[in-house]
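cache lookup: miss for this entity combination. No prior model stored, computing from scratch. Input as submitted by user K.M.:
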Amino acid sequence: MVPDELETLEVHGDTAVGWDEHTPINETVDDEGKPFPGRPGFGVPDPRAPAARVYDHPDVEKLRAHLRANNGIRGLEICDPDEVERAARIFRRDGFVVVRDLLDAEHLELFRQGSARALRQLLEVPAPGKRKYVTESGRLPHRYSYGTASASRQMLHEEEWAAMVDLPTTSPILAEIFGSKDYLVLGAGGDLCLPGAVEYQHLHVDVGESNQVSAGRLQAAKDIGIEIQTVEGSDEPDLATRRRIVDFCPAVVTINFAMCDLTWENGPIRQIIGSHAWQMRPPPPADEPEWMRLSTLVGAPAGAGVIRDNRAWHGATPNLSREIRSLPNVEYGAPWLGSKHKQTMPHDIWETLTPHGKHLCRHIKADPGVWPPGAGVMHPLGGERRAAAKRMGGTGERRHGSPGG
Ligand SMILES: [Fe+2]
């Protein structure tokens, strides 16, 4: 715990937070904070990581020079918020799209404040040994998720996150993508990395593809203009049509909002173009080609958002700067996902929303007077979060596959 640096913590601009040389490279901890639990798939190590978490270590300098010269998708397209159709077209083609100015100055400031406050709660937990911070269970060092670090698994009890669910910039693009204004808010969270997060997070998908075409999904396909061709002598969509339906009608879409400019140095998220429609698994870190490691969203400015299909391969990258890279998010679901979702938005917060915002949050709002179990408790360790949620009347169960991760 380093109280001075936390008092002035901000999620943009230079900071003294991070770069803890006493947190070993690739160290992960279990739900109780025990280091290197040795479970397969538990915080996947980066075999190419620098040997030390030190700003001017030769390995770090070498990686920094490489990223300065090469990091970022060449010709990354960045849309304006009023380019609704273009944004949807790029989203369907690539599995994500970057749109600038999704947040105006006021909303950006509000979200920065909320993000900084939540992060402070995580970093002020006393750390073992000489370490500055407790690492989040199941993640690489200096990386946290606002969603999974919240004992309710979501952040919709916080006014800053709730204020982002229906923006004049985002709602038209989401309606275009889903082909309807009846899409859902599923949750909100986001991820961040501190300076000194020198390891690459493994490429992963947040949500798997069921390859099922329900009546609702078929309708969504018609709503976005997919022409339905059927197998001769049957009502069944033919293979090419089924593929288009699956490719272009995602179940979950997340908007991550940039709190600072994403630069070659501060851990821009990487997205693999077109991978939302692939049926294979992403490569493990040892097999990941260099072009994928460099396929990052360098150039997305503060206030922009990356609207991403949660099936697309993505991962966090090294933050070798002095700036915290925070990407809080809101997670949306297709109208055909049904009504059974965890109710993590308190009724009082729901009442503050716009009429459309209330409609979007219809399935995740709690009843009046009911506080969502775990909401308000932020802790890096899974064991502590489960205990808090249980104390507050929840089951404290783990929920896997959270889009927030
Ligand atoms: Fe993820």
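stored under new cache key. The pocket of fe (ii) ion is lined by residues 204, 206, 314, 405 (CB under 6 Å).
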